[in-house]
């Protein structure tokens, strides 16, 4: 005789509730829409052009996205605090040209030293942005728009008509963009490590979690004892470090660096972060989402090129994605605020 196991009253309901809760949490992830869009884009493009997902095609996709991914991670830190940094393209350009200068004028310089110098230069330039924003109390949009042109002007004056090419750098440095590990380019693996470290910082370290509080309500964060100015300054500093790292990797990835290196890149970086679910109004989003947004935007360009779509439509589609991301974020914010008001009314 077999005795059927008995289920305590209410346990089945609790189990179903837990499952529906987990499903609801999954569906509410800000990274989910951009991830699904990326998957759909890859599948559709592969059907149209089977060579799109060839080993070389995959390598090119990752290489094209790596620099923007690192920059988008740093930009996410700043946007979460309700700020923005438009100077990252100019910082990258300065560091990239500085990298070429080091290799050309200091023979035998260790590659590790070049990385350290590039990140320190990026940190210095990012700190200038942070100090101006926190001390002058001027909107970051205005400050970094100004430093964008200042840093670009410095690079133009420094570089002039000089360019450094692949032959001016050590072979081992250029190999960072050529060599792979299990099919993944080395510089992409560097980007993955960066994403993991920053994600842990944002979610597992109090200083990182404070950035969300600042972005949600700076005045309330100040009342709760959060050092708002210091945290915002650190966000700009870390963003500068990552822009410096991206500048060094840019010099490894591309055949030449000069006065115009990085021009216009800041717009793609901000777009990647916003499309990846980082709210432009601050207080929400993740660096993982920003990285996926960067991968989506670069994949769109590659996909449309693979199916021979005009470049104008590539830019138009990216613009529509940005608008869609902002509209979706606004709708989600309104719905959340409405639910909060209803909940407060019920409690009263």
TrEMBL record:
InterPro entries on file: ABC_transp_permease (IPR001851)
Pfam families in UniProt: BPD_transp_2 (PF02653)
Signal sequence residues: none
Residues that span the membrane, as ranges: 32-54, 61-80, 182-202, 232-251, 257-280, 287-306, 312-332
GO MF annotations, alphabetized: transmembrane transporter activity
Keywords from the named record: Cell inner membrane, Cell membrane, Membrane, Transmembrane, Transmembrane helix, Transport
Recorded GO CC terms: plasma membrane
Compartments reported by the entry: Cell membrane
Record's bilayer topology term: Multi-pass membrane protein
The UniProt record lists the keyword Transmembrane helix: yes
Domain of life: Bacteria
Role noted for this protein: Part of the ABC transporter complex LsrABCD involved in autoinducer 2 (AI-2) import. Probably responsible for the translocation of the substrate across the membrane.
Subunit organization: The complex is composed of two ATP-binding proteins (LsrA), two transmembrane proteins (LsrC and LsrD) and a solute-binding protein (LsrB).
Protein name per the record: Autoinducer 2 import system permease protein LsrC
Organism, scientific name: Cryobacterium zhongshanensis
């Amino acid at each position: 005789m077999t005795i059927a196991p008995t289920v305590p009253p209410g346990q089945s309901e609790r189990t179903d509730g837990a499952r529906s809760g987990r499903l609801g949490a999954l569906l509410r992830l800000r990274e989910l829409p951009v991830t699904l869009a990326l998957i759909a884009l890859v599948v559709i493009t592969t059907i149209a052009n089977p060579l799109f997902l060839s080993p070389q095609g995959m390598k090119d996709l990752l290489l094209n996205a790596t620099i923007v991914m690192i920059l988008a991670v740093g930009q996410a830190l700043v946007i979460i605090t309700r700020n923005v940094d438009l100077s990252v393209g100019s910082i990258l350009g300065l560091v990239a040209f500085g990298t070429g200068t080091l290799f050309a004028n200091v023979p035998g310089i260790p590659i590790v030293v070049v990385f350290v110098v590039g990140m320190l230069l990026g940190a210095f330039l990012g700190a200038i942005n942070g100090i101006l924003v926190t001390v002058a109390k001027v909107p970051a949009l205005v400050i970094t728009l100004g430093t964008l042109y200042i840093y670009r002007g410095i690079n133009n004056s420094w570089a002039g008509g000089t360019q450094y090419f692949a032959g001016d750098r050590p072979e081992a440095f250029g190999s960072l963009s050529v060599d792979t590990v299990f099919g993944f380019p080395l510089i992409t693996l560097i980007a993955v490590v960066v994403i993991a470290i920053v994600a842990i910082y944002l979610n597992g370290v109090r200083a990182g979690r404070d950035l969300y509080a600042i972005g949600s309500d700076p005045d309330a964060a100040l009342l709760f004892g959060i050092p708002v100015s210091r945290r915002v300054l650190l966000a700009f500093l870390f963003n500068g470090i990552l822009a410096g790292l991206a500048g060094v990797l840019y010099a490894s990835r591309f055949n030449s660096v000069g006065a115009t290196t990085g021009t216009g890149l800041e717009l793609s970086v901000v777009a990647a972060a916003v499309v990846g679910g980082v709210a432009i109004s601050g207080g929400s989003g993740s660096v993982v989402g920003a990285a996926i947004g960067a991968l989506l935007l670069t994949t769109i360009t590659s996909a449309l090129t693979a199916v021979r779509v005009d470049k104008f439509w590539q830019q138009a589609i990216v613009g529509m994605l940005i608008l869609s991301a902002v509209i979706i974020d606004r709708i989600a914010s309104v719905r959340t605020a409405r639910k909060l008001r209803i909940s407060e009314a019920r409690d009263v």
